[in-house]
Automatic annotation (TrEMBL):
Keyword Ribonucleoprotein among UniProt keywords: no
Keywords, in A-Z order: Membrane, Transmembrane, Transmembrane helix
Record organism: Rhizobium indicum
Name assigned to this protein: Tripartite tricarboxylate transporter permease
Transmembrane domains' residue ranges: 20-49, 61-82, 109-135, 147-163, 169-185, 316-335, 355-379, 391-411, 417-444, 465-488
DUF112 domain: residues covered: 20-438
Entry superkingdom: Bacteria
PANTHER family linked: TRICARBOXYLIC TRANSPORT PROTEIN
Length: 505
């Protein structure tokens, strides 16, 4: 069957009434959490994991994807009206969007963000549908050593992409590895690191770790900050719609942002933040009036917002085809797949095509829902910004606890929820990223399994791991991904020290 036929079948699945409801719930929740500063789609999906474990797998995954898309858009509202990005990928939008809002042009800023998100999401989702089958064909020739090398690349890039330091990212990753060792060894049947506690023989639940670190840890961190300066929300003045000049200045940035964001999101070391900064720099370089940048240029909102949403579709390419998450939300979505006994990758396209193509098609529908939902409901999202923080985070704590009890009614599980929540708070406090720890717990056992298979085939000869051209190439890329940022950072530090020494002289 061709991609068009698979996509048409997926549309039929996505158009089922229950799946439409799941998509609507997802984009509504996603927009709401994207609007609220400090609460992102990763936290929301983590909270919903234990609640949805008995629901339909396809519908739940459609809802998670809708949350992801909605969260990426919702962050633009706080960036424009509050100058506080709801998502890290919306940082660039605040540069020009908030200046437009202060100048009384908040409406056109919100409109170009919404339409740009729709255009980019539509094109990027179609790109996902047509590119994914080719990556699946390539992945089908992978053996154990190629998969192990691919996971090493994923570990390195995830550790480098999250946080300010690759070393801290690797430390977080190895915390996840250590937790993944707990339980019964899949090959020998021996208990590992269970310390005689029967509850640990089944291993650490991914949902418990994700909810604890993202929800409990974040809540404790926010509570520890104390009272902050009151945040002023800029009122939306004048018309919400764009005039002819706004349209003429926005459509090219929408397309350029899509072309920049999608491939960067699809790369193992990608991420929406990189694409938005590149898009902003591109628009500033190509602008007819570059002096407007920094004072409310609409191109500085249109391009980055398109890149933001295009990268969201791009991150689903490695997740669905190879089972590799490149963002925190993708890592939690991977946990969602595994919650239902599904492993994203090339075999999923063969064994469960209805689910995969229904999920891809639902993104097209969710994208249209976002456009219809967001423009008329700007007033509601602005009111949502006034929810008191204590109520909001108290609700998150309650929801996280009840969800964990519902999924696993055990006192020991609640104890682990609290312990991992405190661990997440400490890591957040000292600047250690959370996502690599979750990725380590999810992918650590799979990497170990592939390594042991490769060594069993080669009768323990480690050198065979690099005999395959594909495996060797992936390991070289992984080494470069780790060493190049380290060298650049050391060089930059050396230049700063030289400059300080020169100033003292």
């Amino acid at each position: 069957m061709s991609t068009f036929e698979f996509l048409w079948q997926g549309i039929l699945v996505a158009m089922q009434p229950m799946n439409l409801i799941y998509a609507m719930v997802g984009v509504t929740l996603g927009t709401a959490v994207g609007v609220l500063p400090g609460i992102g789609p990763a936290l929301t999906v983590a909270l919903l994991l234990p609640v949805t474990y008995k629901l339909d797998p396809g519908g739940s995954l459609i809802m998670f994807a809708g949350i992801y898309y909605g969260g990426m858009y919702g962050g633009s509202t706080t960036s424009i009206l509050l100058n506080t990005p709801g998502e890290s990928a919306s940082i660039v939008t605040a540069l020009e969007g908030n200046k437009m809002a202060r100048a009384g042009r908040g409406g056109p800023a919100l409109a170009t963000a919404a339409i740009g998100s729709f255009v980019a999401g539509l094109i990027a989702t179609l790109g996902l549908a047509f590119i994914a089958p080719y990556i699946v064909k390539l992945a089908l020739i992978f053996g154990p050593r190629e998969y192990f090398a691919l996971m090493v690349l994923a570990f390195v890039t995830v550790s480098s992409a999250f946080g300010d330091s690759a070393l801290r990212g690797l430390t977080s990753l190895f915390i996840g590895f250590a937790l993944a060792m707990v339980g019964i060894d899949q090959q020998t049947g021996q208990a590992r690191l269970s310390f005689g506690i029967p509850d640990l023989l089944d291993g650490i639940e991914v949902t418990t770790l994700a909810v604890a670190m993202f929800a409990i840890g974040e809540t404790l961190y926010i509570a520890a900050q104390g009272n902050r300066i009151a945040e002023k929300v800029e009122a939306v003045k004048g018309s919400l719609w764009m005039n002819a000049e706004d349209w003429s200045r926005s459509w090219k940035p929408w397309l350029r942002g899509t072309l920049i964001g999608f491939p960067i999101g699809a790369m193992p070391a990608g991420g929406a933040e990189i694409g938005t900064f590149l898009s902003y720099a591109t628009e500033k370089r190509l602008a007819k009036n570059p002096e407007e940048f920094g004072h409310g240029a609409i191109e500085g909102v249109a391009g980055p917002e398109a890149a933001n949403n295009a990268s969201a579709a791009g991150t689903l390419v490695p997740l669905l085809t190879l089972g590799l998450p490149t963002t925190a939300t993708a890592a939690i979505m991977l946990a969602g797949f595994q919650q239902y006994g599904l492993q994203p990758g090339p075999l999923l396209f063969a064994t469960n095509p209805q689910l995969v193509w229904g999920l891809i098609a639902s993104l097209l529908i969710a994208n249209a829902m976002l456009l219809v939902l967001n423009l008329p409901m700007i007033g509601l999202w602005v009111r949502l910004l006034t929810v008191p923080k204590p109520w909001l985070y108290a609700g998150i704590l309650l929801f996280a606890t009840l969800g964990t009890i519902g999924a696993n009614p055990s006192v020991f599980e609640l104890g682990m929820l609290l312990a991992f929540g405190l661990l997440g708070y400490v890591m957040r406090l000292f600047g250690y990223p959370i996502a690599p720890a979750v990725v380590g717990l999810i992918l650590g056992p799979l990497a170990e399994q592939q390594l042991r298979r490769a060594l069993a085939i080669s009768q323990g000869d480690v050198t065979t791991l690099v005999m395959s051209p594909i495996a060797a190439g992936l390991l070289i890329v992984a080494a470069a991904a780790f060493l190049i940022p380290l060298i650049l950072r050391l060089r930059g530090r050396g230049q700063v020290l030289s400059q300080l020494a020169a100033n003292e002289d």
